[in-house]
Amino acid sequence: MRYAVISDIHGNLEALEAVLDDIDSRTIDVIICLGDIVGYYPDPEACVELIRRRVAYSVAGNHDFAAVGLMNIEHFTYYALRAIEWTKENLSEKSKEYLKTLPLTIQLDGLFFTHSSPAQPKNFVYIFPNSEKAIVEAFSSLVHKLNFIGHSHWPFILKQDDRSITRCMEDIVTVIPGNYYLINVGSVGQPRNFNPCSSYMIYDTDESTLSSIFVRYDYTVTQQKVIANNLPQFLAERLADGR
């Protein structure tokens, strides 16, 4: 079985289409989305519709819930707040109803999927490669061996063996039985790892491998749409730098 796990699309249709095209070029059995389908970029409706048609399972992200009034957005940054208010006005009732139905977690075939820290799914806690406290808290909560997250827009794989928690630096990681893994699949629509390419993860159960995949797309089209829709210019600029 081969799983493709995507996350943090954020209404970026060009990025989502490029990633789905890349997935279609490979042998993939199941596509799973880790949330934040909407927010920031100007094609929330089209992205929700694509996810509905192409993705077998999806969890909710904080921007998904924010867009349908299911969470407090007072803590959102200026750019996130501007974009989510725009998104609310540009989503159909059908798409809003879909976002409302998304669960916070999914357990499937011995795998665990959620948007943010598995220790606090409903609080949407960020985990970065250097988030020592959040990492320890997350690993302390794990029940499953392989745990997939998004939210920070930064792809990385952490493993815990009998001695310590370490970061796997390879693009293809062999899963070792007995170890626990926390796998951030990165972001399709707004990378923040200083690489403008979209990222996602493939888990191959037969090969016991986790593969980080990076996909180029024409972000200039998305940038033009941002400006045309009077969304903050910074949202367009950051796509070129992956920040």
Walkthrough of the structure:
The chain is an alpha/beta fold. The protein has eight helices and twelve strands. The protein has helices at about 15-25, 45-55, 60-65, 80-90, 95-100, 130-140, 220-230, 235-240, and strands spanning about 1-5, 30-35, 55-60, 105-110, 110-115, 145-150, 155-160, 165-170, 170-175, 180-185, 200-205, 210-215. The protein has a six-stranded mixed β-sheet. It has a six-stranded mixed β-sheet with strand order 4-5-6-10-7-8, with helices on one face. The radius of gyration is 17 Å and the shape is globular. The two termini are about 35 Å apart.
* Total beta-strand segments: 12
What strand line-up does the widest sheet have? 3-2-1-11-12-9
The string of secondary-structure elements, in order, is EHEHEHHHEEHEEEEEEEHH
Task: Characterize the biggest β-sheet.
Answer: 6 strands, mixed
Q: What's the domain count?
A: 1
CATH class descriptor name: Alpha Beta
Report the end-to-end length measured between terminal Cα atoms.
Answer: 33 Å
The helical percent reads 25-40%
- Mind telling me which CATH architecture this is? 4-Layer Sandwich
- Gyration radius, in Å: 17 Å
CATH domain fold name: Purple Acid Phosphatase, chain A, domain 2
CATH superfamily assignment? Metallo-dependent phosphatases
What attributes does this structure have?
single chain; 243 residues; alpha/beta; Purple Acid Phosphatase, chain A, domain 2; six-stranded mixed sheet; 12 strands
